[in-house]
Amino acid sequence: MNEIPTIRQTIALNDIEIYYESRGQGEPLVLLHGFSGLGRDWELILKQPPAGFKLIAPDLRGHGRSTNPTRTFTFRQAALDVLALLDAIGIERFKAIGLSGGAKSLLHIATLRPTRVEAMVLVSGAHYFPAQARKLMAQMTLESHSEQEWEFMRGRHPRGDDQIRLLWEQCHAFKDSYEDMNFTAPFLSTITARTLIMYGDRDPVYPVELALEMYRAIPNSYLWVVPNGGHGPIFGDMAQTFVEKAIPFLEGNWK
Q: Left (φ > 0), alpha (ψ -120 to 50) or beta: where does 247 sit?
C-alpha cells in the first residue's frame, strides 16, 4: 500500500499563525486535539485516512507549531480560529472529532455555526468544569511537573519552554474560569449535528454524569460509555475499536 502524503501548511488568520496537516481525499473530517496536545496526536488513532475522508488536523492556538501572541486561551476563541481556518481553505460543511479540549471547542463550533457541522464525535468533552476537574487544575502548578514531563512536552511543542510554561499556566487558570465553558441544556439543544458522545466510566477529570447531561440535552445524540475507560479512552488497545465505531457513525452507517 502506498503511503498517503501529508500536506503541512501554516496560515495567518485572526491574530495568529495556525499550523495544520491534511491527509486523504474526500469529505472533510476535522480532528481537534486535547489541551496541551497537537494535531499530530491523531496519527496514533487514524494511521491512514479512512476511505472517503480528508483529514484536517490543526494545532490549536499556542499548541505545537501554532502561535498565540495574546498569551490567552479560551475554547471559544479556539473554535473561532478553526472556523476561520476552514473558511480560508474553502470548507463550509464538515464532520469532526474532538478529544477533551478539542471536544469543548467543537461544542462552541456546533453552537456558534450549527449548520456547518453535519456530524461530530465528542470524546471526554465537558460542557462545564465540574468541581473534581477544578481541583485537579488547582494542583497542576509549574512546580508539579516532573523533568520527564518537561522533556515529553519539549518533543511536542517546538517553540521552547516559554510555550510549554504558558500552556501549563493556562490549564491551571481554568480552575477559575466560569464563562468560557458554561453550556446550559437549552443552549446545547440548539446543536443540530448528529452527535456521538464517548466517555470512560472511570474518567478522573469529568464524571460520566456529564456525558449523560449532554446526551439528554443534544437532540440527535448517542451515548457510548467505555467500561473501565479513563480520560480519552481512544489510544492504545482502544484505537481500533474507536475507529470501527466512530467512522461508521460519521458516515451515517452506525447502528
A: alpha
Residues 6+ apart with CB under 8 A from 192: 110, 114, 115, 117, 219, 220
167 falls within a domain: no
Report the predicted TM-score, pTM, of the whole model to 2 decimal places.
0.97
Q: What is the pLDDT of residues 64-82, one digit of tens each?
A: 999 999 999 999 999 999 9
Strand-by-strand arrangement of the 94-99 sheet: 6-13, 16-24, 53-58, 27-32, 94-99, 117-123, 194-200, 221-226
Per-residue pLDDT tens digits for 16-43: 999 999 999 999 999 999 999 999 999 9
> Does the residue 14 lie in any domain?
yes
Full residue range of the structural domain in which residue 52 is found: 6-132+182-251
Q: How many domains does the chain have?
A: 1
What does the alpha-carbon distance between residue 183 and residue 187 come to, in Å, rounded to a whole number?
A: 6
Identify residue 223 by its one-letter amino acid code: L
Distances (CA, A) of 214 to 110, 153, 189: 13, 32, 9
For residue 200, give the CATH number of its domain: 3.40.50.1820
Q: Please give the Cα distance from 146 to 198 (Å, whole number).
A: 30
Residue 27 placed within a domain: yes
pLDDT in tens, 211-236: 999 999 999 999 999 999 999 999 99
Would residue 94 count as lying in a domain?
A: yes
